[in-house]
Amino acid sequence: MTPTREHDERNDVFARPSVRERRVLADALRTETVGGMVLLAAAVVALLWANTPLNELYDRVRDFHFGIPALGLDLSVEHWASDGLLTIFFFVAGIELKRELVVGELRRPAAAALPVVAAICGMAVPALFYVAVNAAGGGEMHGWAVPMATDIAFALGVLAVIGTNLPSGIRAFLLTLAIVDDLGAIIVIAIFYTSTLNMWALAGALAGLVVFYVLHQRLRLRGWYYYMPLALAIWALMYNSGVHATIAGVAMGMLLRVTTRSGEKESPAERIEHLVRPVSAGVAVPLFALFAAGVSVSGSALSEAARQPEALGVVAGLYAGKLIGIFGGTYLAARFTRARLSSDLTWADVAGVAMLAGIGFTVSLLVTELAFTDPETTEHVKAAVLIGSLLSALTACVILKFRDAKYRRMWEEETLDEDGDGIPDLDQREEAELAARAAREAAAAKGDGTWVSRDR
Question: Which of 161, 239, 431, 445 could be a cystine partner for 450, CB 3.0 to 4.6 Å?
Answer without folding.
Answer: 445
